[in-house]
Write a structure and sequence with these properties.
alpha/beta, Rossmann fold, N-(1-d-carboxylethyl)-l-norvaline Dehydrogenase, domain 2, 2 domains, globular
Length: 340
C-alpha cells in the first residue's frame, strides 16, 4: 500500500484524492485548511463545500493536521492555491520525508517572484548541500467534477526525474484516468497557468454576447502567445499542442465548469471583480492572480502577449471589456506565422 498525502481540500484536491482512493491500493490522507471540509468528509464521505455530490472512498482520510497528513507519505500531491504554496511548503518542510516524491497539481504562477510552482517548491525544499528534490507537475484538461464522476480523462505528469514519472504514471492511472509522461516541466506548468487568463477572456466574450467566431479566434491567438512565452522560457512548442497546452486551453475556455471562464462571463455582463470573487464562496480562479505574473514574465522575456495584457488591464486597471476588444482588433496588421 502506498501512502499518499494530498495537500489541499478544494475541488481538484478532492478529485485527485477520489482517483487515488478508488484504486484500493493507497492510503490517502487529504489535508484541508477548512475544518468544515474535514468534518463533512468524515461524517458524510462528501466534500459538500467544494465538490458536492461526489462520494469519497473510505480509503481517504481527511485532516487539517499537516503532520498527520504527511507522516510516512511517499508521494505528496500539492493542490493549494498558488499564492499559498510557498508559505505552506515552509510549514511542511520539516514534515516531508527526504525521499518523498513531490507532485504539484496547482495551475498558477507566484506573484512577485514570477516563479512556477515547481520552482517555488524547489526553492523551499532544496537542502544546503544542493540536492534537488524529486518534483513534478501534473496538468491537463481535468474538471474535478468529471474526474470524480469517473469520466475518461487524460492528463500529463512532467518532471526531469525518471523515477517520479514512472511512479506517478503507475500509481495514478486507472481505467478512467490516463496519465502520460513528459519531461518539459516549463511547458507543462506554463501551459496550465497561462490558459486561465485566456479562459477569462473567453468568458468575457460569452458575457458580452459574442459568438463562436470570437471565441475560436481568441483560443487560437491565445495559444500562439502562450507558446511564445513558453518557448522564451525554455519550454517546447510541441508541449503546447498537447494535453497541458491546447487540451487544457480548449476545456477551460469552453467548459461550463471552468471557474476562470465564469469570472469572465460576469465581467462581460458588467459586474466588478471584487463582487465576483466574493460570490465564489472560497473557490479560487487562478487566472486572476496569474495574469499579473504572466505580464511580468512576458516583459522580463521581451515577449508580446496582447490578449494577456488587455486582460490585465480589465482585471486590475478597470478597462472595459469592449474597449479591450477594440484595442486588440485595431492592432497593426501581422503575419499569422511570423509575427505576434
Amino acid at each position: 500500500m502506498s501512502n499518499i498525502a494530498v495537500i489541499g481540500g478544494g475541488a481538484w484536491g478532492t478529485g485527485i484524492a477520489i482517483v487515488l482512493g478508488r484504486k484500493g491500493t493507497h492510503n490517502v490522507r487529504l489535508w484541508a485548511h477548512e475544518t468544515d471540509v474535514c468534518e463533512s468528509i468524515a461524517q458524510k464521505r462528501v466534500n459538500e463545500q467544494f465538490l458536492p455530490g461526489r462520494q469519497i472512498p473510505d480509503s481517504v482520510m481527511a485532516t487539517n493536521d499537516l503532520s498527520a497528513a504527511l507522516r510516512g507519505a511517499q508521494i505528496v500531491v500539492s493542490v493549494m492555491p498558488s499564492q499559498h504554496c510557498r508559505a505552506l511548503f515552509e510549514r511542511m518542510r520539516p514534515l516531508i520525508a527526504p525521499q518523498a516524491l513531490i507532485v504539484s497539481a496547482t495551475k498558477g504562477l507566484e506573484e512577485g517572484s514570477l516563479q512556477r510552482m515547481t520552482e517555488v517548491i524547489t526553492d523551499v525544499l532544496e537542502p544546503k548541500d544542493g540536492t534537488i528534490p524529486a518534483v513534478g507537475a501534473l496538468s491537463g484538461p481535468s474538471f474535478a467534477q468529471e474526474v470524480a464522476r469517473g469520466d475518461p480523462t487524460a492528463i500529463t505528469i512532467a518532471s526531469q526525474n525518471a523515477e517520479l514519472l514512472r511512479t506517478v504514471q503507475q500509481e495514478f492511472s486507472d481505467s478512467s484516468f490516463r496519465v502520460y509522461t513528459n519531461n518539459d516541466v516549463v511547458g507543462v506548468e506554463l501551459g496550465g497557468a497561462l490558459k486561465n487568463t485566456i479562459a477569462i477572456a473567453a468568458g468575457i466574450c460569452d458575457g458580452l454576447g459574442l459568438g463562436h467566431n470570437s471565441v475560436a479566434a481568441l483560443i487560437t491567438r491565445g495559444l500562439a502567445e502562450m507558446t511564445r512565452l513558453v518557448v522564451a522560457c525554455g519550454g517546447r512548442t510541441e508541449t503546447m499542442a498537447g494535453l497541458a497546452g491546447l487540451g487544457d486551453l480548449v476545456l477551460t475556455c469552453t467548459g461550463g465548469l471552468s471557474r476562470n471562464r465564469s469570472v469572465g462571463v460576469e465581467l462581460g455582463r458588467g459586474h466588478k471583480l471584487p463582487e465576483i470573487i466574493a460570490g465564489m464562496h472560497g473557490m479560487v480562479a487562478e487566472g486572476v492572480f496569474t495574469t499579473s505574473a504572466a505580464v511580468g514574465l512576458a516583459h522580463a522575456r521581451n515577449v508580446e502577449m496582447p490578449i494577456t495584457e488587455q486582460m490585465h488591464a480589465i482585471l486590475h486597471q478597470g478597462k472595459s471589456p469592449r474597449e479591450a476588444i477594440q484595442v486588440l482588433m485595431s492592432r497593426t496588421g501581422k503575419s499569422e506565422t511570423n509575427q505576434s
